[in-house]
Specification:
Layout: H1 4-34, E1 35-39, E2 45-49, H2 51-81, H3 86-151, H4 160-177, H5 181-200, H6 208-228, H7 230-233, H8 260-263, H9 270-297, H10 299-309, H11 311-316, H12 321-347, H13 357-370, H14 375-393, H15 396-406, H16 417-431
Antiparallel strand pairs: 1-2
Helix pairs in contact: 1-2, 3-9, 3-12, 3-13, 3-14, 4-5, 4-6, 4-12, 5-12, 9-10, 9-12, 10-12, 13-14
Length: 462
């Protein structure tokens, strides 16, 4: 048992670290949170101070550092030195995650009906569109990036470029040539895969940080091209009046021949089009999941995993690493292009601002948070991150609380979403360094396959 002197020493050290963290937080947050520029009624910029909000954030950071030094760090040390009980739990975790898959799919299929039943036609618009459709878009993007990062071990920070290629491909083909969504969808995926090959060729010899820098530059190049190629992309003004997908030729409009509501003798409601879009992206996401799982069991999938673990050993086995990398980039980009085409038809308007680096960072964070190579983990992390954004938009009671208690005006929780995402990533990396779902099942096995702990899998160095 630790002595009283050692306990006092630990508490004193925790207080010193908390004070140091508070000073650093104060210095960093002072220009960002402490001061705020606003426009007055005379259209002049004036400087306001937000000392209560700054004090709250500094106090939270100091308390978190104190708790980490006093409780969490010793617990982590004991966990590292203790016997690995985590490996004994992997079989149970594997059964749990495999049993969750049909439950998650069934819930996703019934979700619009549940939303309509609980919130009504008007209230269900927000829950199906902002939550359901938006989360499924990022689930599909996460599964596409998982092929590149999780299976092949190639760190890609410019994945949003393929998302943008798919969106602009559909927008331009549909508006200029009148092609339908179902014709443009495969074309958008093919064009995105082509750009994936273009990115793959220059980075064949790159790994790790160098690969990340090049892919980041590729994403920024695509965004700048979209902004400056005004004659094709309409520049910063974007592309508007993008056609929406019809229901087997039936348009979702209020009245008139060929409308969905008149054909089925229904009263027109916006939820009809949103539910149809929901099931389209659900089918696309399930197809992405099915193809990813099947590819992982094929020789090309095993080659991706071999490349992730050790590229030198992969070459020594006679595996063509050039084709392996290019197929990973192309297939991952293709699914990103599909998601981009759906995003364009859902929004009806796209612009380069929708495809910045923050989108790539969010998709990569979803993959890392869920667990590299884990399909179910990506679903859970997308629900937490993307659903969390929508939850923050509806926390009106926090605005009232900060105004009444601390006198903070115009407090908007959505402005602090990246701070919360960063905190969530730190917590997950401390608690479960391999992600939410860290167990790994073998791709092929003789007899009965057995899942192993994620810490036994190298998962690449890039």
């Amino acid at each position: 048992m630790p002595s009283e002197a050692s306990n006092r020493l630990r508490v004193g050290r925790a207080f010193r670290e908390a004070a140091t963290s508070a000073l650093l937080a104060f210095g960093l947050l002072l220009p960002l949170i402490g001061f705020n520029t606003v426009q007055n009624i005379h259209n002049e910029l004036i400087l306001e101070t937000r000392w209560p909000l700054l004090a709250i954030l500094v106090a939270i950071i100091a308390a978190g550092r104190f708790a980490y030094s006093l409780v969490i760090a010793p617990w982590l040390d004991r966990r590292i030195s203790a016997p690995r009980r985590d490996r004994k739990l992997t079989g149970w975790v594997s059964h749990l995650t495999s049993g969750m898959t049909p439950v998650v799919v069934a819930f996703a299929i019934l979700y619009p009906a549940l939303a309509l039943w609980l919130a009504g036609s008007q209230g269900a618009v927000k829950w199906v569109d902002n939550f359901g459709v938006q989360i499924l878009i990022y689930v599909m993007l996460g599964w596409g990036l998982n092929i590149v990062v999780g299976l092949a071990g190639l760190l890609d920070l410019g994945y949003v470029a393929f998302y943008a290629v798919g969106a602009y491909s559909y927008a331009l083909l549909s508006t200029h040539f009148g092609l339908s969504f179902w014709i443009c969808l495969p074309l958008a995926g093919i064009l995105a895969a082509f750009w994936g090959l273009i990115l793959g060729f220059p980075v064949l010899r790159l790994r790790g940080d160098y690969l990340a820098i090049v892919t980041l530059a590729f994403g920024e190049i695509i965004r700048l091209v979209l902004i400056n190629w005004f004659s094709l992309t309409n520049g910063p003004q974007g592309v508007s009046d993008i056609p929406r997908p019809s229901f087997f030729g039936l348009e979702f409009k209020s009245s008139g021949p060929g409308s969905f509501a008149d054909f089925f003798h229904l009263t027109y409601a916006p939820i009809q089009r949103i539910v149809w879009l929901y099931y389209i992206i659900l089918a696309m996401a399930l197809l992405t999941n099915f193809v990813s799982i099947r590819l992982r069991r094929l020789p090309i999938g095993r080659a991706w995993e071999a490349l992730r673990e050790d590229e030198i050993a992969c070459r020594s086995l006679g595996i063509n690493t050039v084709n392996t990398k290019l197929t990973a980039f192309a297939l991952g980009a293709m699914f990103g292009g599909f998601a981009g085409a759906f995003f364009a038809t859902k929004q009806g308007f796209i612009s380069p601002e929708s495809f910045n680096f923050l989108e790539s960072a969010t998709i990569l964070a979803i993959v890392v948070l869920g667990g590299l190579g884990s399909q179910l983990g990506i679903v859970l992390s997308a629900i937490v991150m993307i659903g969390g954004i929508e939850v923050l938009r509806n926390l009106d009671f926090l605005k009232i609380f900060f105004l009444d208690v601390f006198g903070v005006k115009d407090f908007d929780p959505i402005q602090y979403r990246m701070l919360l995402f960063g905190l969530a990533l730190v917590v997950i990396m401390v608690w479960r360094p391999r992600g939410i779902v860290s167990s790994r099942a073998p791709t092929v096995s003789l007899g009965k396959g057995k899942a192993i702990s994620g810490d036994l899998v190298k998962e690449g160095h890039g």
